[in-house]
Amino acid sequence: MEKEQIDRINHLARKSKAEGLTEEEKTEQAALRAAYIAEFRAGLRGTLENTYIERPDGTREKLQKGKSSGNA
Q1: Would you state the pLDDT for residue 65?
Q2: Domains in the chain: boundaries
Q3: What is the CATH number of domain 3-62?
Q4: What is the pTM of this model?
Q5: CB 3.0–4.6 Å: which of 3, 21, 53, 62 could bond 25 by disulfide?
Q6: Taken in order 42, 47, 50, 55, is the CA torsion positive or negative?
């Protein structure tokens, strides 16, 4: 995502808190946010696809796709 788009997201967020947005601006904000989230997820997915776990014995295992155990 280009810097101008991120700057626009931030501008709309500030304006929303200060004075509110028009319907057109709300639509623009939603579209920009959706695009930002999609790019973020794609980047994270790419990182995780290239992540390996190194075991204590030195072997490396590719991170498996699956459900989170919920242990945070």
Answers
A1: 78
A2: 3-62
A3: 1.10.287.540
A4: 0.71
A5: 21
A6: negative
